[in-house]
Amino acid sequence: MEAERALSRHDLDRAKWALLLGNFVIGCGVMVVGGTLNDLTRDLQISVTEGGHLIAIAAVMMGVGAPVLATLVAGMDRRRLLALAMLWYALGHALCALAPSYPWLWPVRALTVLSAAVFTPQAAATMGFMSTPAHRGRSITFVFMGWSIASVIGMPMAAWIGERLGWRVAMGVVAVGAVLAAWQVWRSVPRGIRPPALSWRSWGKVLKSPLLMAVVAVTGLQSAGQFTVLAYGAPLFKNAFGANPEQISLMFGYFGALALAGNLLLNRIVDRVGAARVVSVTLALMLLSLLTWPLGYSLPTIALVMLPWAFSGFATNSGQQARLGGLSPRLAPALMALNTSAIYLGHAVGASGGGWVLDNAGGYAALHWPGACWMVLALLVSLWAQREQARRLAEGRPATG
After folding, report:
1. Are the C-beta atoms of 177 and 153 separated by less than 8 Å?
2. How far apart (Å, rounded) are the C-alpha atoms in residues 348 and 286?
3. Residue-wise burial string across 90-124, b where 16 or more C-beta atoms lie within 10 A, e elsewhere
4. Quick check: 100 pLDDT over 90?
């Protein structure tokens, strides 16, 4: 009997919403530094580039931590694991809010985000495990939609709070949200959910599969492309376009609202159209925005240029989760961990590269060019993986062959 049929519809829906809430809080916490970067750099008396390094350090910890922690926690009951991850997130953000200086903040931040390296991939794997094949893609993209909602509400709120009340208050708000999410996960996710343990053989199958690793690479490449620019969104809007705090918040809200709309559309069509095809289309739309970036000479025009990107950015990540879950459901815990790792390592590469551009190669006006280069690579690899998947399907061969 499939896991979804073993649960009542009501119980499954409760679990979906609880995991979506958890991803919402995770997304708010991950994005809080970028949203409050202007106040954080002022308060701690560091440069914007150093603030970008804070994003990169956290991203490396999440990227390296996701596959390692996935193996260490493989045998834990998912209700307990996911609730504890949220409590760790709450404690870490509370301590970050109290950090007296940058040398204190960055190691606390690095340890805090390890819970994000656990929660997002394990939430996706848990939902994939509970769902039937016919609804697996939609279920996975649903819980990942929490990230899109975070970009609509969390990022603009963090930007406004950072400018008006300070970055420490924004960190404290994330801590409170994480406690609430932990409680909701504990009361809503069923007991006894234990996806198949990750054996070394499972990791070997994943790492030796050109198709699976190519799909994971798409995630890392597009993430680097996006965060070359997005990591510096708040100072970019302020310094390049003269935006005030409310306008910065509005720009993040605009981007997030379109991201949520794109994710909602993806959730409706992904099982019918196919995740691989959807991902390739969204990558092309993001590339379009990055290539036409020079046409944005004011906040209204850059908002228009960003429209295809905003509509596609989070949908791409959700589509990638569904793509990997469909390629090999039994290896989903390993694949989701690697995919999360790729997202965050892409953040690190993008933020670091963007910082180098700001200091050495043209400032804010040149950020989009390296972003576009990463996106071209992502699109080419995605198209190859899409063709390879179709060929293997026609030949009746598995993705791990």
Report:
1. no
2. 19
3. bbbbbbbbebeebeebbebbbbbbbbbbbbbbbbb
4. yes
Listed residue (283, 310, 278, 297) closest to 372, CA to CA? 283
69-78, 308-317, 367-376: range with highest mean pLDDT: 367-376
pLDDT given at position 132: 65
Instruction: Give residue 294's pLDDT band: very low, low, confident or very high (50, 70, 90).
Output: very high
**Mean pLDDT taken over the chain:** 85
Please give the structure tokens belonging to residue 311.
């509509």
CB 228 within 8 A of CB 353: yes
User: What's the pLDDT score for residue 2?
Assistant: 41
What domains can you pick out in the chain, each with its CATH number? 3-395 (1.20.1250.20)
DSSP 166: -
Is residue 51 within 8 A of residue 236, CB to CB? The reply is no
Buried b (16+ CB within 10 A) or exposed e, 342-373: bbbbbbbbbbbbbbebbeeeeebebbbbbbbb
pLDDT score of 199: 66
The identity of residue 7, as a single letter, is L
- Residue 155 is predicted with a pLDDT of 75
Cα distances from 55 to residues 37, 168, 231, in angstroms, run 10, 16, 7
**Strand runs labelled E in 143-200:** none
Q: Quote the pLDDT of residue 225.
A: 95
3-state secondary structure of 385: helix
Q: How confident is the model at residue 133 (pLDDT cuts 50, 70, 90)?
A: low
Please give the backbone phi and psi of residue 131, each rounded to the nearest 5 degrees, phi first. -100, 155
Question: Cβ contacts of residue 393 below 8 Å, gap of 6+?
Answer: none
Q: What are phi and psi of 3, to 5 degrees?
A: -60, -35
Which residues, in sequence order, are CB contacts of 248 under 8 Å at separation 6+? 38, 159, 160, 163, 234, 237, 238
Q: How far apart are CA 128 and CA 321, in angstroms?
A: 10
At 156, the pLDDT band (50, 70, 90 cuts) reads confident
